[in-house]
Specification:
single chain, Rossmann fold, 4 strands, globular
């Protein structure tokens, strides 16, 4: 990714929580932790946490609290989900509103899911090439 892509720096009072569905498989949950570390390293954002919607911890509320403890006044729940569904349209916005109500003076926002983006085609094509090389 080009450096220009990450030129927009977030304020020190912004926290990011990368949210996936969660899994009963530990290796699947560990992947999100690696994604959060990579996001922080590549973007320079220091207040990055991760959470699972269900089935594993940390929970969304726990991750929001961690961001707030690190100084966030705005927390963005960045959805590591592909398509809009019940979790992205109902469950996660409800959890964000509940967290906002518990933390006076803090805004909790929810991003759109990843959806259709030309950058995802690069990832898909890389997986095709890797598969063919195996």
């Amino acid at each position: 990714m080009s450096l220009e892509f990450f030129m927009h720096k977030l304020g020190s009072d912004t926290g990011i929580v990368i949210v996936d569905h969660g899994s009963r498989r530990a290796e699947a949950n560990a992947m999100l932790k690696r994604v959060a570390k990579l996001y922080a390293a590549e973007t320079g954002v220091s207040n990055v946490c991760y959470a699972h919607m269900e089935l594993a911890g940390p929970s969304i509320e726990q991750a929001i609290a961690q961001c707030i403890e690190a100084g966030a006044k705005t927390v963005v729940l960045s959805l590591f989900l592909l398509s809009p569904g019940r979790h992205s349209k109902e469950d996660i916005p409800r959890l964000a509103a509940e967290a906002e109500a518990h933390h006076e003076g803090v805004r909790v926002l929810v991003s759109a899911p990843m959806g259709v983006d030309e950058k995802l085609v690069v990832v898909l094509h890389n997986r095709v090439l890797e598969t063919l090389e195996e």
